[in-house]
Design brief:
Purple Acid Phosphatase, chain A, domain 2, 169 residues, globular, 6-stranded mixed β-sheet, 32% strand, single chain, alpha/beta
Length: 169
């Protein structure tokens, strides 16, 4: 993979699995920004350009999920509204903490990331279930989902304190 994108201290707003539901994505983005998110990360299954538009105007990145069918359209639209497309897997660095973002549908990739123990965080979606656990030194966080979930959730992570909060949208 390429060199990571590097940032200073930041509070990260995590969302995933919007599946084209832009109205819910917009509510989620507003909630995350109002709760202090400096940078947004969408963990895949964006589903529609309107979801990317909901992220526009805020620093952020998204990765593709297994239900993002027209990836070239999503990527081109993201360029036009200054939202970064991370492809299938993105590498980031915030205040010296290394992060990989992927949708979570590639078990082999996730197992390799955990086995290598080369990052501090692995952000995923896919399961539609909020999760936070650590394997070795890799903390794996899934913010939950904004579509097909009993409770629609996002997550807010303060990298300086390592405090994670799940928020209901």
């Amino acid at each position: 993979m390429d060199d990571p994108i590097t940032f200073c201290r930041v509070v990260i707003g995590l969302l995933s699995d919007t599946h084209g539901h832009a109205d819910t994505a917009l509510k989620a983005v507003e909630l995350l920004i109002n709760e202090g998110a400096d940078y947004l990360i969408h963990c895949g299954d964006v589903g529609d350009t309107d979801v990317i538009a909901a992220m526009a105007g805020h620093p952020g990145i998204f990765v593709f999920g297994n239900n993002d069918w027209d990836q070239s359209e999503l990527e081109q639209f993201a360029k036009n509204v200054d939202v970064v497309c991370g492809g299938k897997t993105a590498k980031l660095s915030f205040g010296g903490k290394r992060i990989i973002v992927t949708h979570g549908d590639d078990n082999r990739l996730m197992q390799q990331i955990v086995k290598d123990q080369m990052v501090d965080f692995l952000f995923v979606g896919h399961t539609h279930v909020p999760a936070d656990h650590t394997v070795g030194k890799v903390r794996i966080i899934n913010p939950g989902a904004l579509y097909r979930a009993a409770t629609k959730t996002v997550a807010l992570l303060d990298l300086e304190t390592d405090v994670l909060r799940f928020l209901t949208v």
